[in-house]
Every structure is written in structure tokens, then in C-alpha cells.
Design brief:
Largest interface: A-B, 65 and 58 residues
CATH topology of the largest domain in chain B: MetI-like fold
CATH architecture of the largest domain in chain B: Orthogonal Bundle
Number of helices of chain A: 14
Distance between the termini of chain A: 32 Å
Number of strands of chain A: 10
Order of helices and strands of chain A: HHEHEHEHEEEHHEHEHEEHHHHH
Number of helices of chain B: 23
CATH architecture of the largest domain in chain A: 3-Layer(aba) Sandwich
Strand order of the largest sheet of chain B: 1-2
Strand content of chain B: under 5%
Number of domains of chain B: 2
CATH superfamily of the largest domain in chain B: MetI-like
Radius of gyration of chain A: 21 Å
Oligomer: heterodimer
Chain lengths: ~350, ~550
């Protein structure tokens, strides 16, 4: 405990000294405040956004918006990125200026440890989903955990309608979900469902021989081949398959509530280029940045941006979404994972 | 002058190799070990108590040991007769079989795991469907998501280690003992049982332990095959702890990793100790050519049997991956109209795929080049000199090779992120160091084997004529061992090229490798694109192996 406190102090000191060190730079930026297009230097973004979206949408658009700033990317699964950052925090060498992963509870943890830089972006007012009032973080893209099935292999009326339906014995041995131990979004889903239905819900899934897979890709693939009849999966995976490969997979928005996961963006307190990082946040929350998000089959955090191709508008199902206690997920991370492992994976 | 420069250059080169090994192999592992017991300013074993008070970690440990034992025994049982048939009999087509039997060494294990899941999953596995149709079965005969399924895939992918070791020893075995038994009237089978088998025992043990260590350190196969079947092993537990995303997770992972390292290395020392006592009995000093056994009427049945095994182990899974990459829709049946290059286009036209392939090629080339140069010195030191402690560097590379990849990666992250001066974190060098630590031992083995066949008189002649030691190396020794040097280079290049487990923990924004990309595609994105990438990897590796075979004139097939 004492150690982490020391590290936190060291990190803040480091941040302060850097801020002082970069004073000259900052002034230069201030004089040209007129446009964020003047942001310069380098910005490192750690993200779990899919690599093809980064390559096709984010890289070219950010380059156009900030011709003088070099934007570097580290891309990996949410848990991979978190592992990397954890190691970097331990070594006191955080490489990220911006963090964009799909587990909101992790941001609460970072915020509590004072590792996030407060910034109220002018675009923050347009963000209709979760955001921190001090600007430590703001949701930047919405992923939804849903149920999916293969319409080539099953009729719509036979498909499950709710999370509760998955406990019906008729799905025994035919359903799957991603592992919360290895996937950040699955962790959120497990926490949410355990809160709503109690851990007995997972006992029932276990009794129904639910398969726990490494990640969403294995599940979408096995839905295609018919290995699984229905599965818990991210909406964006299915929308992408529908549009790019014309596969007949269908999304079910469960009647007992979609698990809406507002993935945040935040600036790390150790950033060496706060102006560049701020400019990048502004861009992500702008209409243009949000269009890149939607092109990646995720929902926008703004109301003035269309939903992704093939999906209903967020507001049609967000009202009925499962309420998630993010603070609890942040505080009980390892307990939730362990409870799931003991109940389902043994 | 001649004498002093000889000693100096030799001494310099050798001490640099030793220092490098100590710094990059011994030091990180020591740091990891200390890190696992050092907490709150003192030494204590609370981390270990903590992780081993959880049932699942015990089960992961027993699963790992059990599984590795099963894979080891199965590998020896399968590869011993195969090695005998290919090495010591007049089996038709044995050259092709030899290549096929070691081919699974070239296939990235996780690629093979994906293929076997496609073939043997209980609901729609291709092979299960065919068997159901052929024998009118109600249920699928096989389920890949079981302990047995996991052991099966691990056996197929790691038995080449046993095959290579056993067949090498078998071909170098002194045949006079066998001849004596035959002359005394023993049948070929009796000779095999009473003479060949006991003589081969140390090599069988060595090969088996290599398999044991490799199976126990593997992450890709248990992650893909074991997880849906709820089978936890040490490597998957370590990754789970790392993914907890807090300090405690890293500490728990370190404790587990340290135990895995201790397990693997004590086995290794056991093996060295056993072999140190016994190895000389099997291999005679002179190069001998064992006589070939005539299989007689068993010739064609044996050929058919080996062929069946080779096609199940290598050809069918490869075909399955190729087929997946060519399907237009995974949800439709396999028909000609459903075959096309649709999944290939996004891969071939994407900048990030090509970038990852390039990264991997570059890092593997650098690792292979540095590794080969070091391996030459290390092998020379061990085989050609009488210096005290001459085999120490060799032993250090063996330790690196037998340490589970995930442990190496963890140790390198902790050690080389600047805490102790050198900061390689997020650079390509940390990846290259990791590849070197893990794969250099195979190169040292290969070069040492061929160096031991170069007679010392040639070197002495050069030295007596006034050549310096370095000059002697360059002009006399290197040309003589050139084929094995090339082989050594590829032995490092190929596994580095498709490496996954270490790269996953060590890559950065600029240094994403092909293994990482493939894992991501398989986990988060698109399985078909993953198959395409696998086919590309296999293509590159196969071409590499063909070159290797050509250059070494078929002597150093892997």
C-alpha cells in the first residue's frame, strides 16, 4: 500500500517536473491557440480499437487534422493493453499519453490512483453517455454485449430472447461466451449479470454446459460453422460480419437488458505532450472522430451521429440497459473474476 | 607474438560470449526469482503461499505435469518406431517421410491448434462429420475440448523434438553390438528389444524430456484447445494473472512463473546428469554407418502405416487451414461456389499485415545472425578447447532454451525496462533478446555436432603455419562447418519468425510481429484472415526449409 502511494507521488512529481520542463513548448502552443490543428510533437495512444479501423479511419483522419503531430499507436486487446500499462506503472515508465480501452472500471481505478489528467474538452457537452464531471475520462465509443445466432441454422422465433433464456435446458451444450478472465468486455458483462441475477445465474449457465472461449473471434467463427447455436458476443463483431462478409448472423437485443459498455478515453497524468493529447481528445469526441467510431460498427457517444450500419439507434435500447455498478467492478475486479472461474470454469 | 595473439583473441571472444549470456540469460532469471520472493523490503514466501493456497493453481500444476507426461510418453511411443523405420530400415520413401515427420516443427503450434479445433470439435468438426457419415454414427466420435484432445494436439506438435533426438542417435549408433547379437542367433525383434532399446535409452530419455518441457511451456495450444474445455495449465494461469491488471496480478504471475522455471530446469539438470554418465556408450568415436534392416514382406504395410500417421499429423491439418482461408462463407457448405480468394484480398492489401510480416522477418534475421555468430564461439569453446568451464556457456544457452517462453518474457520485462540501467522496453531489441535466449540452444547443438567431426590436426596445421586463431576460424573451420552454420541460422530464424508467447508480452506500437497479429485475429477479429496469414507464414517457413535442405544437402533437415 505504502509502495503504491510512493509510486503515485513519484508519478505526480514526474508529471509536474515534465510540465515545467515542457514550459517552453507549452507557451509556443498557447500563442497559436486559435486552432487545435497546430498541435505538434508526438502522442502515443494505447487502444483496443480494432487494427483495421485504426489503419483505415483513424490514422489518415488524424493526420489530416493534425499535420504537425505524429500520432503513434499501440493496439491490443483491452486486457493486453491494461497488462502493458500495469507493467509500465510498476516500472514508472508509462508510455501512453492517451488510453482508450473497453473497461470503464479500470479508469475509475486509475482515477483513484490519480493517474489521469483532468481535461474538460469543449466537445464534452455533446457526449450524452457516461463522463466524469472533472474531465478525467469520457466515454468515446459504445460497445454492446448482446446475444447472436446464425439465421441460416435457426429460425428467429426459436432464438433466445433474453439472457435468462440462455438457462433454458434446450440450449444445453450449444451456447458460449467470452472469458472474463481474458477479455475486458466479457468481464463487464459478467459483473453486470451477476449483479442483476446473482451468481446463481452462472450456476445455471454452467449446468447448461456453456463453453467459455478465449475471445469474440472464436465465438463468431463457431456461430458461423454452427458449432454454437447462440452466444454472448459484442454487437460490433456481428454487424461487421453482416456488412463485410454478408453472413446471416443476427443480433438479439436481450429483453432483460443489453449490456452497454461506454469505453472511455483519458489522458494519462504522465503525458509529456498535454496539448497534443488534449487536441486528440477533442478530435475523438468531435463529429468526425465519432464517425470513425461508427465506421468500426460501434455506437457514437453523440446524438448527432448515425448508428453503425445495420444497428438500431442507441436510444432505442439504452433505456432498458442493465444497470452497471462501475465502482463495484473496479473495487472487486479479481473477486468477480475468481467467482466466475470457480462457478463456471471448474 | 603468435602465441599471445592467439590466446588473447580466443580469450576475448570467449569471455564476451560468456558475459553476454550471463547478462541476458542468468541475470533476468535471477531478477525474476528474487522478485518472486522479495516483498515489502524483505524476503518472504507469501507470494508462493498465496498462489498455492488456491486450488486452481495446484490443479494447473498437476494438469501441466500430467499432460506433459502423457505427451512425453505418447511422443516416445510414436516416434521410436518411426525413427527406427526411417533411420534403420529399407522403408520405401523414407526421405520424404523424414521431412514430413519433422514438418510439424515448422508449423506454429497455435496455427495447428486452430486446425485441430476445426477438424475435431464435437458439433461440426470436419473429421467428426466425415466419420459420422462413414460409419453412420449418432454422435461425434471425438471431442477436441478434453484432456485427451489437448494431449493429442500437443503430441503432434512436440513429438518432432523426440523424433529428431532419437533418430539422430539411432543413425550414429555403433552397429557392432547389434551385429554380435544377430550372429549369436537373436531374431531382429529380440535384438531390437535386448540391444538397441537399452543402448538408446539415454537418447529416448533426452528426447522425451525435451518434449515434456516444450509441452509444459506451451501457451498457444492450451489457450485455444483447453479453454473451452475448462482445462487450466500453468501457462494459462500465468497469463490470467498478468491480465488481472494490477500489481498483485504481476506478483502472483511471477511466483507461478518462477515455479514453472524451477520445474523445467530441475528436469534439465536431471537429464544432463543422466546423459553425462551414459551417453558415450551409444556413440562410437569413428563415424559409422549402421546396417539397414530388410523389412521383407512388412515393407509396404510399414510404408502405409507411416504414411497414415504423416497425413494425420501434418497433411490433414494443413489442408484444413488452407481450406478455411479459401471459404467465401464459413456458414455455408463446402462447395466449389463457396471457394474463392475473398479472405485473401484484405490481407494482401492491408498495410498493417505487411508491416507485421516485415517486422517479423527483420527481427528473425537479426536474431538468427547474432545467434549464429555467438553459437559458433560457444560450440567451439565447448567442443574444441580444454579451458576450464568450457561447457558453461553451452549450459547457459540450454537453460535459456528450456525455460518456458512466458517466463523469459516476464523476466526480460522486469529486468530491462530501465530499473537496472539498460532499457530495451518497447524496442525491437527486447524481442530479439527474447528470441535469442529461447532458440540459440538448437543452433549451438547443431554447430557443436559438426565441429566435433572436424579433426584438430587441420587447425593445428594452420596455427603452426603462423595463422592467427581468428584467421584459422575464418579460413579452415568455418568453410568446413558451413552447412551446419546455415542450418543453425534457420533453426533460430524460423521459430523467431512466428513466435507468439513472448512477442505478445513484449511488442509495442511500432514492433507488432506476425505472431501477435495472428493471435489477435484469432482472438478478437477474423478467423479466416487468421487462416490466410497462417498460410502465408507456412509458405515463408517452407521456403526457408527448402533452402536449408538444399544448402546442407539434406543433412540438416529439421
Amino acid at each position: 500500500m505504502k509502495k503504491t502511494k510512493l509510486i503515485a507521488i513519484a508519478a505526480t512529481l514526474l508529471a509536474m517536473s515534465l510540465a515545467v520542463g515542457c514550459g517552453g513548448n507549452k507557451k509556443a502552443a498557447d500563442t497559436t491557440k486559435a486552432g487545435t490543428g497546430k498541435a505538434s510533437g508526438e502522442v502515443m495512444i494505447y487502444t483496443s480499437i480494432y487494427p483495421d479501423i485504426i489503419d483505415n479511419m483513424c490514422k489518415p483522419n488524424l493526420k489530416k487534422a493534425f499535420p504537425n503531430m505524429k500520432v503513434n499507436w499501440f493496439q491490443g486487446g483491452t486486457e493486453q493493453v491494461i497488462t502493458k500499462i500495469t507493467g509500465e506503472i510498476k516500472a514508472n515508465k508509462v508510455g501512453a499519453d492517451l488510453l482508450m480501452v473497453a473497461d470503464p472500471s479500470y479508469y475509475l481505478k486509475l482515477q483513484k490512483e490519480k493517474r489521469l489528467f483532468n481535461y474538460v474538452s469543449p466537445n464534452l457537452k455533446d457526449v450524452v453517455t457516461a463522463k466524469d464531471k472533472d474531465g478525467a475520462w469520457a466515454s468515446v465509443r459504445i460497445s454492446n454485449m448482446v446475444i447472436a445466432y446464425n439465421a441460416d441454422k435457426m429460425k428467429a422465433e426459436d432464438a433466445p430472447k433474453s439472457w435468462k433464456d440462455l438457462t433454458d435446458p434446450k440450449w444445453k451444450g450449444k451456447i458460449a461466451m467470452p472469458s472474463p478472465l481474458l477479455s475486458g468486455t466479457a468481464f463487464v458483462a459478467v459483473g453486470a449479470l451477476a449483479d442483476k441475477y446473482g451468481w446463481e445465474y452462472f450456476d445455471q449457465l454452467k449446468a447448461n454446459d456453456i463453453r467459455v472461449e478465449q475471445g469474440n473471434s472464436a465465438i463468431q467463427n463457431k456461430l458461423l460453422t454452427g458449432e454454437y447455436a447462440a452466444a454472448m458476443i459484442l454487437e460490433e463483431n456481428i454487424l461487421k460480419l453482416q456488412e463485410t462478409k454478408h453472413e446471416n448472423l443476427k443480433v438479439i437485443y436481450p429483453t432483460d437488458g443489453v449490456i452497454v459498455i461506454p469505453s472511455p478515453i483519458a489522458i494519462m497524468s504522465t503525458t509529456k505532450n498535454p496539448d497534443g493529447a488534449k487536441a486528440a481528445v477533442d478530435w475523438w469526441l468531435s463529429k468526425e472522430g465519432q464517425q470513425a467510431v461508427v465506421k468500426g460498427w460501434m455506437h457514437s457517444v453523440r446524438e448527432d451521429v448515425e448508428p453503425p450500419h445495420g444497428a438500431p439507434a442507441l436510444k432505442t435500447f439504452i433505456g432498458n440497459a442493465i444497470k452497471i455498478n462501475w465502482q463495484k467492478l473496479a473495487d472487486e475486479n479479481s473477486q468477480i473474476k475468481e467467482a466466475f472461474r470457480v462457478r463456471v470454469m471448474e | 607474438m603468435g602465441l599471445s595473439s592467439k590466446i588473447n583473441s580466443k580469450f576475448l571472444v570467449i569471455s564476451i560470449s560468456v558475459l553476454l549470456l550471463v547478462y541476458f540469460v542468468v541475470f533476468p532469471m535471477g531478477v525474476l526469482l528474487i522478485d518472486s520472493v522479495y516483498k515489502d523490503g524483505g524476503f518472504q514466501f507469501s507470494n508462493y503461499r498465496q498462489v498455492y493456497s488456491t486450488m486452481v493453481n495446484w490443479r494447473a500444476l498437476t494438469n501441466t505435469v500430467q499432460l506433459s507426461l502423457m505427451v512425453m510418453v505418447a511422443s516416445v511411443i510414436i516416434t521410436f518406431p518411426l525413427a527406427w523405420l526411417v533411420g534403420r530400415t529399407n522403408l520405401p520413401g523414407k526421405k520424404i517421410y523424414r521431412t514430413l515427420l519433422v514438418a510439424s516443427y515448422m508449423i506454429p503450434p497455435y496455427v495447428g491448434a486452430i486446425a485441430w479445433v476445426q477438424l475435431l470439435n464435437p458439433s461440426v468438426g470436419y473429421m467428426n462429420l466425415v466419420l459420422k457419415w462413414m460409419f453412420h454414427l449418432q454422435n461425434s466420435p471425438f471431442d477436441i475440448y478434453t484432456f485427451g484432445g489437448l494431449a493429442w494436439v500437443l503430441t503432434l506438435f512436440y513429438s518432432p523434438f523426440a523424433f529428431i533426438t532419437i533418430s539422430r542417435a539411432m543413425e550414429k549408433m555403433d552397429p557392432t553390438l547389434e551385429e554380435a547379437a544377430r550372429i549369436s542367433g537373436a531374431s531382429p525383434l529380440r535384438t531390437l528389444r535386448d540391444v538397441t532399446l537399452p543402448l538408446m535409452a539415454p537418447s529416448i530419455l533426452a528426447g522425451g524430456l525435451l518434449v515434456f518441457i516444450a509441452a509444459g511451456s506451451c501457451f498457444g495450444i492450451p489457450a485455444i484447445v483447453g479453454m473451452p474445455g475448462n482445462i487450466e495449465v500453468m501457462t494459462t494461469r500465468i497469463v490470467t494473472y498478468l491480465y488481472m491488471g494490477d500489481d498483485k496480478g504481476i506478483r502472483d504471475a511471477t511466483a507461478l512463473a518462477a515455479s514453472l522455471m524451477i520445474l523445467a530446469n530441475s528436469l534439465l539438470f536431471f537429464m544432463t546428469w543422466m546423459l553425462g554418465r551414459k551417453d558415450y556408450t551409444t556413440i562410437s568415436g569413428k563415424s559409422t554407418r549402421p546396417n539397414m534392416v530388410d523389412l521383407g514382406k512388412w515393407k509396404w504395410p510399414a510404408c502405409f502405416g507411416v504414411g497414415m500417421y504423416a497425413s494425420i499429423a501434418v497433411i490433414i491439418p494443413l489442408f484444413s487451414i488452407l481450406l478455411t482461408s479459401l471459404l467465401r462463407s464459413m456458414s455455408k457448405d463446402i462447395t466449389w461456389s463457396n471457394i474463392g480468394f475473398d479472405s485473401w484480398m484484405p490481407v494482401l492489401t492491408s498495410a498493417q499485415y505487411m508491416e507485421s510480416i516485415w517486422n517479423s522477418v527483420i527481427y528473425a534475421v537479426i536474431a538468427a545472425t547474432i545467434g549464429t555468430v555467438l553459437a559458433i564461439f560457444i560450440a567451439y569453446l565447448a567442443v574444441k578447447t580444454k579451458v576450464k568451464g568450457r561447457s558453461l556457456p553451452d549450459l547457459l544457452t540450454i537453460i535459456g532454451g528450456s525455460t518456458p517462453s512466458i517466463v523469459i518474457a516476464l523476466a526480460l520485462v522486469i529486468t530491462f525496462s530501465g530499473t537496472f540501467g539498460l532499457n530495451l522496453y518497447s524496442t525491437m531489441w527486447i524481442l530479439i533478446v527474447a528470441y535469442l535466449v529461447k532458440y540459440m540452444t538448437m543452433a549451438v547443438r547443431t554447430i557443436a555436432a559438426s565441429l566435433s567431426q572436424v579433426h584438430v590436426s587441420l587447425e593445428e596445421a594452420a596455427l603452426n603455419s603462423g595463422a592467427s586463431w581468428l584467421r584459422t576460424c575464418k579460413d579452415i573451420i568455418l568453410p568446413l562447418i558451413a552447412p551446419s552454420v546455415v542450418a543453425a541460422w534457420f533453426l533460430i530464424f524460423m521459430p523467431s519468425f512466428y513466435e507468439l508467447t513472448m512477442s505478445l508480452l513484449l511488442y509495442s506500437g511500432e514492433t507488432k510481429t506476425i505472431g501477435v497479429l495472428l493471435y489477435e485475429l484469432q482472438t478478437y477479429a477474423d478467423t479466416q484472415n487468421a487462416s490466410v496469414l497462417s498460410v502465408i507464414i507456412l509458405g515463408i517457413v517452407l521456403i526457408g526449409n527448402l533452402i536449408l535442405n538444399k544448402v546442407s544437402k539434406g543433412n540438416v533437415g529439421i
